[in-house]
Amino acid sequence: MRNFFKKIYTFWCAIVFVGLFIILFPFYLIIIFNKNWHRHCIVVNRIWANIALFLVGIKKEFKGKEYIDVKQQYVYCANHFSLLDIVSFGFAPQSVVYVGKSSLAKIPLFGYMFKKLHVTVNRASKTHSYKAFQLALKKMGEDRSLVMFPEGGILSRKIPEMARFKDGAFRAAIIKQIPIVPVTLPDNWIILPDEKIPLISRRKMRMVYHEPISTEGLNMEDVPALKEKVFDIISEELKTQIEYEYQ
Q1: Is residue 116 part of a domain?
Q2: How does pLDDT run across 191-212, given as a tens digit for each residue?
């Protein structure tokens, strides 16, 4: 019986998220066709995420936003266990560019929007990965921050333990000489698990922003240490949040 209600709830969630996106799609088109407006996609993202979560009864909680200076560019690095992670950054404090897997571009309408406003990458191809990296830096310009999931996809087989981080996010931060913000998403994988036919669970969606890490004066030799530092911060927060949940 519990699974039956979960199926009904999942169906309702799908109707809400897809229906709202279709309603908002014309606004995305207006933004897409004017490059100077690309940074304003965060406004539509917030409307979509806020209304959708309200209608499906999922509350949200943000910690650490006081660390973020909206006038400063950042590279946001988060754990990645669920497709809901993309929705979470609809609540980012500033306009962002996502780097996501190339399969996202195949989703009707959403894929078109994502490819035009953000960056898709085929990580199996080194050439494509390099071009995607350069495009991400270009789309950031001087006024958009970058969201990357340094695991390189939903790769962990022992969630909530993370897969090893790749270098891209840390290289981008060093090239741009901008801070990295570790972000912990402790609940999305429970709400929307990475399964072929997932059933959605209703619970609070938490998002923890950690104190920015400066990359000023760093070079590519510092990537391994920087990567390890960010990994440890997010990993420790995941453990803390999950232990607190089950106390």
Answers
A1: yes
A2: 999 998 999 999 999 999 999 9
The span from the CA of 231 to the CA of 79, in Å, is 9
Q: Does position 71 have pLDDT exceeding 70, yes or no?
A: yes
Number of domains in the chain: 1
At position 223, the amino acid (one-letter code) is: V
DSSP 210: P
Q: Is residue 10 part of a domain?
A: no
Q: Is residue 246 scored above 80 in pLDDT?
A: no
Q: Is 163 helix (H, G, I), strand (E, B) or coil?
A: coil
Spatial neighbors of 163 by CB under 8 A, at least 6 apart, are 151, 152, 155, 156
Sign of CA dihedral 50, 55, 58, 61: positive
The model carries a pTM of 0.94
- Answer yes or no: is 161 within a domain: yes
Q: What is the dihedral of CA 217, 182, 88, 102, to 10 degrees?
A: 60
Residue 176, domain CATH: 3.40.1130.10
- Up-side HSE of residue 234: CA atoms within 13 Å toward CB? 32
Cβ within 8 Å of residue 175, ≥6 positions away? 137
In a domain, 32, yes or no: no
Q: Count of H helices and E strands in the chain?
A: 8, 7
Q: Which domain holds residue 111?
A: 59-245
Helices (H), ranges, 108-222: 110-117, 126-140, 168-176, 188-191
**Percentage with pLDDT > 70 across the chain:** 98
Residue that the structure tokens 């390099």 belong to: 130
* Per-residue pLDDT tens digits for 138-172: 999 889 999 999 999 999 999 999 999 999 999 99
With residue 123 as reference, give the H or E element that holds it: none
